[in-house]
Amino acid sequence: MSAIQPPGQRVWWKQPIDKVEIIWIGMAFTWCLIMFFMMPYWHVYGKQNLSSETYRVTPALYQKAAEEMVAKFTVRTETDEKIPVVKPPAGSDVYLIARLWAWWPILELEQGKTYRLHLTSMDYQHGFSLQPENINIQVLPGYEHVVTIAPNRAGTYAILCNEFCGIGHHKMVSKLYVK
Ligand code: CUA
What we know:
This protein is an alpha+beta fold and 179 residues long. It has helices spanning 19-45, 59-73; strands at residues 53-56, 74-78, 83-86, 93-99, 102-104, 106-109, 115-121, 126-131, 135-139, 143-149, 155-161, 173-178. Strands 2-3-6-12-11-8-9 form a seven-stranded mixed sheet. Strands 1-10-7-4-5 form a five-stranded mixed sheet, with helices on one face.
């Protein structure tokens, strides 16, 4: 049999299976199972993908809630684009917008306090990645993800987009302050 000519025996699946094939299938299947069970395992022990509540939302409604928060709790602006830095009260609902190609606004949270962090996208799929903690949350348009967070270490964190979203993807970086 060659790769150019049709096989001599056309009904190939009726031929006996080779031992090497069995071993390969066994290895591949075992690896599939390991990868499958890694998903729930890592959700619990990896602490990278937080459990979130998810709601349907329209960009306009979400934007309104975010703008209300920004109007009330802005403490200063940063960068040439004058991005507001918002310091919401502990325990409150905190809104972060993802869009091409920025996060808005910049959040300043208090260490040891609990917040309800809301996330959505105004356009396409983005990825919320908090570094160096390596916490990752998918951000999808039309859906509002809510995660309860309690920052336990002070510092300046980076928020990166880890879902390729076009030509400005690499510029979609922001900050999160914990004081
Ligand atoms: Cu947003 Cu990549």
